[in-house]
Amino acid sequence: MLPRTFYERPTLDVAPELIGKVLTIIHDDGTHLKGRIVEVEAYIGPDDRASHTYGGKQTVRNQSMFKQGGTAYVYIIYGLHHCMNVVTRGIGKPEGVLLRAVEPLEGIETMSMRRYGKPIEDLTRRERLNLTNGPGKFGQAFGISRDGMDGHDFCSSTLFLEDGERGTVLRSKRIGIPNSGEAKDYLWRFYEADNPYVSKHPKETE
DNA sequence: TAAAGGATCCACT
DNA sequence: GTGGATCCTTTAA
User: Fold this and answer.
1) pLDDT tens digit string along A58-116?
2) Distance from residue A111 (CA) to nucleotide B12 (C1'), in Å?
C-alpha cells in the first residue's frame, strides 16, 4: 500500500502519479472493489477559484480537506452524485485530487448491480464503459457515500492505493469549470492516453 | 428562512 | 452535441 509520504507532497506532483494506481475499497459486507485510476483533477484550495476551499474557506462539508494527506474527501454534487477526492499535503493545507474515472478490476458484478440493477452479462457495450467513466458514476459503482467514507484514511485496511501499470499520461484543462475566472485555464486534469474509461479525450493536450 | 447555483449524468436528437 | 433533471450546501437577509 502506498505510504502517507506519497500523499503529503505538492498536489501537482501527486496528481499525475495517481494515474495507473490501483484503488481498493472493502465494504462492511465484505465486498472487495478494485479499480485502476485513469483520470484525475487537482484542486489547490487557497489559490483555486474552482475549489471548494478557495481562499482557505472552511465549512462543515469540506472539513476533510483540511486533514492530513491521504484522507478521503467525499462530497455530493448536484444533490445526488457522490465524488471522491484524495487529500494531499499536510494538516491545514486544503488541497486534493478528484478521482474522475477508473477502470474496473474486481467486483465488477457488484458495480453492475449498483449502477444498472442487472448483472454484467446483460449490459450493453456502452453500459459497461459507463460503469465508472465519470466522477459520479465511479462513486455510485463503488458505493461511495459521505457516511463512512468522508474523512476515511487511504492508509487503512479497507481503503488504500497500490502501484499498478501506467500508460502515457496526458494533461488538459479541467472539466465543468465555469468559462470565466483565471482558474479555467489551468492544465490540472491528468488522464491516461487511449483508455476507454476516460470520460473525455479533449483536443488540447500536452 | 429563502434563494441560488453546482468539480454531473442521462436521454434524446 | 444539447438540454433538462434534481436536491444539497452555502450565503445573505
Assistant:
1) 999 999 999 999 999 999 998 899 999 999 999 999 999 999 999 999 999 999 999 99
2) 26
pLDDT tens for A173-189 read 999 887 667 788 899 99
Q: How many residues does chain A have?
A: 206
Residue A79 contacts strand C, CB under 7 A: yes
Contacts of A186 (CB under 8 A, 6+ apart): A48, A173, A174
Residue A8: closest CA among A74, A99, A75, A96 = A96
Q: Give the CATH fold of the A4-192 domain.
A: 3-methyladenine DNA Glycosylase; Chain A (3.10.300)
**Does nucleic acid strand C have an atom less than 7 angstroms from the CB of A59?**
yes
Asked whether strand C has any atom less than 7 Å from the CB of A62, the reply is yes
pLDDT at residue number A206 = 43
Question: What Å value separates CA A67 and C1' C10?
Answer: 21
Footprint of strand B on the protein (CB under 7 A): A 41, 43, 50-53, 65, 73, 77-79, 81, 83, 85, 96, 98, 115, 130, 134-138, 174-178, 199
Does the global pTM surpass 0.90? Answer: yes
